[in-house]
Design goal:
This protein has 11 helices and 10 strands. By secondary structure, the protein is an alpha/beta fold. It has a single domain, classed as NADP-dependent oxidoreductase domain (TIM Barrel, Alpha-Beta Barrel), CATH 3.20.20. Helix 2 (50-59) packs across helix 3. The protein is globular.
């Protein structure tokens, strides 16, 4: 499994297994992903599957230090004290002594209070790296310039139809690693049958999905595909080929310049996510 190095020297696998919306049989899916060679498992408090993920990690027989576990703080729990409490709830649910990467899940609420708590957790060794998710470039810059430790990662929507090159360039100025959620566009726009991706795939003996994932990897973006299908999971991690510069340029031409999944800078999205409560 290839790895990249975050700004504080922590190694993170370039390909991970996402668990968003995996509640039924989540433990089985994560266990199988680990057997297939995945070493990064991504979850969140709002996915309601941290306990299942933790059991799979514990029962895998793989040394804890070999598995990179990410979880996330929900909007409802932002603020310094709330974050410390929510982190401990997640840590206990996962059954782990530490979390590899802890992220602020959404760019709303008292994110600065949360960041102070996360810096504390980092210094005390309860987390190995801290970052954000769904933060636009301006939000990352704001956080980076007004805190002691800049975000080490930003997990955002990145796929051939929404490439966000300018955002990635800004993240890199602050040592913030881009990580793609929805790297296969959540299966939308018939991506698995995209003519360009399939055409490039034929020259490499790869599927459209593999081409889309490899494209992100070759531009320095980590990916966390999610699949409840064992065969698809095996494909998503079998990326031992290289795209040519021409391949990369052809894929670059697919960019629509906007998301058709969610817009985190939209007032409706903000209201919807801020009002979503995951606990009493």
């Amino acid at each position: 499994m290839r790895k990249l190095i975050l700004s504080n020297g922590v190694e993170m696998p370039t390909v991970g297994f996402g668990t968003f919306m995996l509640r039924k049989d989540c433990e089985e899916h994560v266990a199988d992903a680990l057997r297939q060679g995945y070493r990064l498992i991504d979850t969140a408090a709002s996915y309601f599957n941290e306990e299942a993920v933790g059991r799979a990690v514990k029962n895998s027989g793989i040394p804890r230090e070999k598995i990179f576990v990410t979880t996330k703080l929900w909007v409802q729990d932002t603020g310094t004290e709330n974050t410390l409490k929510a982190f401990e709830t997640s840590r206990k649910a996962l059954g782990l002594s530490y979390i590899d990467l802890y992220l602020i899940h959404q760019p709303y609420g008292d994110i600065f209070g949360s960041w102070r708590a996360m810096e504390k957790l980092l210094k005390e060794g309860f987390v190995r790296a801290i970052g954000v998710s769904n933060f636009s470039a301006d939000r990352v810059v704001d956080l980076a310039l007004n805190t002691n430790i800049p975000p080490m990662a930003d997990q955002i929507e990145l796929h051939p139809y929404f490439q966000q090159e300018k955002t990635i360039a800004e993240l890199r100025k602050y040592g913030c690693q881009p990580q793609a959620w929805g790297p296969l566009c959540e299966g939308q726009k018939d991506i698995f049958n995209d003519a360009t991706l399939c055409s490039i795939g034929k020259t490499h003996g790869a599927t459209a999905a593999q081409i889309a994932l490899k494209w992100n990897l070759q531009r320095g973006v980590a990916v966390i595909p999610r699949s409840a299908d064992k065969g698809h999971r095996a494909e998503d991690i079998a990326l031992d080929f290289e795209l040519t510069e021409e391949d990369m340029q052809r894929i670059s031409a697919l960019d629509m310049g906007h998301s058709e999944i969610i817009d985190h800078r939209c007032a409706h999205t903000a209201r919807q996510l801020i009002n979503l409560k995951i606990h009493d």
